[in-house]
Write a structure and sequence with these properties.
This protein is about 50% helix and about 20% strand. It is of the alpha+beta class. It has two domains: about 70 residues, no CATH class; about 80 residues, no CATH class. The strands form two sheets. Strands 1-2-3 form a three-stranded antiparallel beta sheet. The protein has a three-stranded antiparallel beta sheet with strand order 4-5-6, with no helix packed on it. The structure holds zinc ion (ZN).
Length: about 160
Amino acid sequence: MGKKSNSFFSWVITIVGIIGTIFGGMNWEFVKELLNIIWSAVIAFFTFKIPVWTVLSGIVLIILILYFINLFSAPYIPEFVKNYNTASIKGFKWTWRWVYDGNGWDIDNLKPHCPMCATTLKTDVVPKGLSLSCPREDFKKLLPFDFKEDVRIIIKDEVDRRG
Ligand SMILES: [Zn+2]
């Protein structure tokens, strides 16, 4: 960084300062001072001789810190999340998966299965309630709207009972 780049910079801050003063109503002396400080910081940063090992160990340290933050912030996986994903409730076999929503574990993708062939049943909301039908055969059943909600509550209750 020679005299040339410094004089170029002086020229730039003069222009920026004038524009700032005219259009932004800024304090010219303040703007000039601020730009000078920024420029000095940039020069100091690029000319300061930092040993390579310092930089490398810094990077390694940051990676280790991030690794441990990630390790300890991962949610603890309870036993029921791994093992309790299917049950026979209210005459149907149900499957689901557990999702962590930030506060606790919730049931997701809750599906009833056909009592005859175990295929996932089609679930349709019809005017009278919830219609379950097997895509493979002639099986159809009309259930109350909140049928699935009941199953959800039963599954969660079962988890609570198991402790
Ligand atoms: Zn079936």
